Amino acid sequence: MFMKRFDKKELEVVKQIIENGEYLSGFTTTFRGGENVQKFEKDFARFIGVKYAISVNSGTAALLISFKAIMEYALSQNKKKFKNPNIHLPACTFTADPSAALMAGGKIIFEDINKKTFCMTPPKSKSMISVPTYLLGNANGSDNFKKADFLIEDCCQALGTEINGKKVGSFGDLSIFSFQETKHITTLGEGGMICSNNEELIDIIAGIRNHAEFYSGKKFLGGNFRMTEIQAAFGIVQLKKIKKILKLFRKNAQFVIKNLPSGISAPHTPSNVNNSFLVIGCLYNEKEIGASRANFLEKLTQNRSHILKKDKKSDIKGINMKSGKLISTGYSSPLYEIPMYKKFKPKNGCPNAKKFTEVSLWMDIHKFRPHDEIKEELEILTKTINQFKK
Ligand SMILES: Cc1ncc(COP(=O)(O)O)c(C=O)c1O
Fold this sequence. Notes:
By secondary structure, this protein is α/β, with parallel strands linked by helices. The chain has two domains: 8-240, 3-Layer(aba) Sandwich (Aspartate Aminotransferase, domain 2); 243-388, Aspartate Aminotransferase, domain 1, CATH 3.90.1150. Helices cover 37% and strands 13% of the residues. It has 13 helices and 14 strands. It has helices at 8-20, 35-48, 59-76, 96-103, 199-209, 212-215, 229-240, 242-258, 286-289, 293-303, 305-308, 351-359, 371-388; strands at residues 52-56, 86-90, 107-111, 129-130, 150-154, 162-163, 166-167, 174-178, 192-196, 264-265, 273-274, 280-284, 327-328, 360-363. It has a seven-stranded mixed beta sheet, sandwiched between helices. Helix 3 packs parallel to helix 4 (96-103) and helix 10 packs across helix 13 (371-388). The longest helix has 18 residues, at 59-76. Bound molecules: pyridoxal-5'-phosphate (PLP).
């Protein structure tokens, strides 16, 4: 099965809006978005299985707004400790989680990850705000975050992942999504969504999205985190294809996993989880292959150079992000080793997260690619390993 990421349908809706000239309709004191923004939100909420969805202009914005909204909501109920809340995050996730937590005025507590799923293990004590990330599309398979006053599910990498047949993003007080271009669906490169069943939280979120203090006289500050009509219209078309997209990700990922050469092991997905496989997070076995991961990747890049040459390089640390033909080491260290977060390092570190960053091999080779290209990638992987094995 092969599908192109975009087709005429996306182009048509974009063209229509350019011609109509309604780029951001509904921009009023009670901004709830233009026609397309509102429809995208309604369709998205239905897909996830929640009452409400509010679109924003990135997953990072969704995080920042979510923290701010929870703090505002809790403080309005006189819960004073929410002025600088403790925010529990996995030590292995994207930097947007801790940076947004700090920008919102929170304090970070890094938690370790599960060895097999790579997702955050639940905090041992009751947490004020917990933000488990469904890393690379996987999940732990248990709804074990109940100990949090507030749960924000970070679903940026896991659109369509299910636990016991229920979509992730429907379990928390809030859940956040990204439509940045490397994700399952995109709203023209950037975009995000916040979902919830809590109407009061959603009202605060809608206010923060659109200058709450100015347009609606609220007692808290907002900003401009709005999604445009063109992005939303694009998103509506993308979401219509989501079943096909998820089927493609899963089918291709299963093919890759089944045919992985010995020395590279597949991620573990619990039996009650339907992984959406944004990236296939494998583990590299240095002993078995007989070469360091760095040496292996160097040789692999040489062997794949004819594939990589076909694409324009992105400037993100020299990684070819745009093509989706990536095989990389993933996150380079647990977050607490990054200078900005060093002071939040837990006393004994997070050993599973540390180990994961040392041996993981992230593969994007299953995304929107024809079967023969995926097969070729696997053959190159096997060939490269054989060059090292004695
Ligand atoms: C787990 C996680 N959270 C948050 C984000 C931030 O999303 P965005 O890039 O749309 O700001 C990302 C993006 O990759 C992510 O992977």
